[in-house]
Design goal:
362 residues; alpha/beta; Rossmann fold; 2 domains; six-stranded antiparallel beta sheet; six-stranded mixed beta sheet; globular
Length: 362
């Protein structure tokens, strides 16, 4: 799978752009704030349906313009594919696949698979469980559309249960109504928890392979899926989780929200037997985060039969020369986009970026 062509209009600091890409390594070179990451963001948007930044759609439109546009032309194993996104400050965005508008973003997820890494991905290792849940959800959704819809369903059920807990006058009112939400929550949570557990187990050997490769065989990594439901993942999951929800009902009523569920899931990460989040050095945390991302490449290939597109945003500034070289060798199996402030004479196509324009391609 690869991106052949990108077209932009009034996207971020780009007024007009049409550019073709190479099959393997594409390097965006330029000083900071010139538009390198914006190119990565536009491609990512056409794969996932949203930005990797926490921004509103209208903020993506170029300053002093009312609308914007992205189009990627891509090539998959068995067919060609185009994705277009039209933005407007006055209306909702329109997403089209092969010129046909889609009704839900879920229809886009998995059409073009992508793995994105930047220095900010350190959050995946060292910050809150929300970052690791997001990591699981984006990856699994690209492989399994049903999971994406199940996740949306769970969030709606959870929202209704929390609304009941927060707005009811007394616990008796909650007890009379909560069963319907509990049954739905338990069924949905089971599907999500089992998929997440399967995912963590499937990427674990690939993560170890990448970690060993990047560290020169010096480090061993271990991943453990931690369920926020408080029960074992076995044939009695639904029964036991339902009982636990009932047991915690008064506590949840006082809190005003549901304290158990897959919305509290996490992944524990250990390096040479030590928890990386609390005790790993910044260099170790960075390598672990990168290993998790590279594991996504192999896992997606194993699941869908094609390597995803790999994006590395300003990663070289965070890695020593040995890890840089190892990373480039590892990523050579897929189409890769790299942004960097320095011309490192990499073995790929280089695009010189300045002020929202491509000045030179070589």
């Amino acid at each position: 799978m690869k991106i052949n062509r990108l077209k932009l209009r009034n996207f971020r600091n780009y007024e007009e752009l049409e550019v073709n890409f190479g099959d393997s390594l594409n390097v965006f070179v330029g000083k900071n704030a010139q538009g390198k990451t914006n190119l990565l963001e536009s491609i990512y948007y056409c794969c996932i349906g949203k930005s990797f930044k926490s921004v509103k759609d209208k903020d993506i439109i170029k300053w002093n313009h009312e609308d914007g546009y992205i189009k990627v032309e891509a090539e998959k194993k068995y067919r060609d594919l185009s994705v277009e996104v039209k933005f407007s400050k006055k209306s909702k965005k329109i997403v089209m696949i092969n010129s046909l508008p889609i009704k839900r973003i879920g229809e886009l997820i998995g059409e073009l698979n992508i793995v994105f890494f930047s220095p900010n991905e350190l959050k995946l290792v060292k910050e809150s469980p929300e970052e690791r849940r997001k990591f699981m959800d984006i990856d699994i959704s690209q492989i399994n559309k049903r999971y994406f819809y199940q996740l949306s369903r769970y969030e709606k059920i959870l929202g209704n249960r929390n609304k009941l807990l927060k707005n009811s006058e007394n616990i008796q009112v909650v007890k009379e109504t909560v069963d319907i939400w509990d049954r739905a929550l338990v069924q949905s949570a089971k599907k999500i928890a089992f998929e997440r557990d399967k995912f963590v187990k499937s990427i674990a050997p690939y993560t170890q392979k990448a970690q060993s490769y990047l560290s020169g065989g010096k480090e061993e990594i271990e991943l453990r899926y931690i369920s926020g439901c408080g029960v074992n993942l076995d044939e009695k999951f639904e029964e036991n989780f339902d009982k636990l929800l009932k047991k915690n009902l008064e506590k949840d009523f006082k809190l005003g929200y549901t304290s158990l569920g897959v919305h509290r899931d996490d992944i524990d990460i250990f390096l040479n037997g030590v928890e990386v989040k609390s005790f790993g050095s910044q260099g170790q945390q960075r390598t672990v985060a990168l290993s998790l991302k590279l594991a996504e490449l192999e896992n997606m290939y194993n699941e869908v039969g094609e390597y995803p597109i790999l994006m590395l945003d300003d990663v070289f500034s965070e890695l020593d020369s040995d890890r840089q070289e190892r990373l480039l060798k590892f990523s050579s199996r897929t189409q890769t986009f790299i942004s960097t402030t320095e011309n490192k004479n990499l073995n790929g196509i280089e695009y010189l970026i300045s002020n929202g324009k491509i000045l030179n391609i070589k």
